[in-house]
């Protein structure tokens, strides 16, 4: 693949790996600290990867789709942050 297309393919794969790593880190922060910003970041990363997997469905998308499924499952299993305000 590299011989045929050059460095842009490696950069594209590195971008996918970076976004997946960022989503994983955001889910870790959400689980450990309960950050709403981390929840939004994780959701955005998963949606970006899902859109990329859909758009590139006939080339690299089938390899990215399992990452999207696993990150979605991880996001669903991550506990949501509790309100830190006074109880009502």
Description:
There is one protein chain. By secondary structure, this protein is mostly helical. It is 77% helix and 0% strand. α2 runs antiparallel to α3 and α2 packs parallel to α4. The chain is elongated. The model has no long low-confidence stretch (mean pLDDT 88).
SS class: mainly alpha
First CA to last CA: what distance? 59 Å
The Cα radius of gyration reads 16 Å
Uncertain runs are none
Tell me the quaternary state.
Answer: single chain
Give the percentage of residues in beta strands.
under 5%
Largest sheet: none
Secondary-structure element series: HHHH
Number of domains: 1
Query: How would you describe the shape?
Result: elongated
Count of individual helical segments? 4
Report the helical percentage.
Answer: over 70%
Mean pLDDT: 88
Q: What is the number of beta strands?
A: 0
């Amino acid at each position: 693949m590299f011989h045929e297309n050059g460095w842009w393919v490696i950069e594209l794969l590195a971008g996918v790996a970076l976004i997946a790593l960022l989503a994983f880190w955001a889910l870790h922060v959400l689980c450990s600290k309960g950050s709403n910003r981390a929840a939004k970041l994780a959701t955005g990363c998963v949606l970006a990867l899902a859109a990329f997997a859909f758009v590139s469905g006939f080339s690299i998308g089938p390899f990215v789709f399992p990452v999207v499924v696993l990150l979605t499952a991880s996001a669903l299993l991550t506990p949501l942050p509790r309100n830190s305000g006074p109880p009502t």
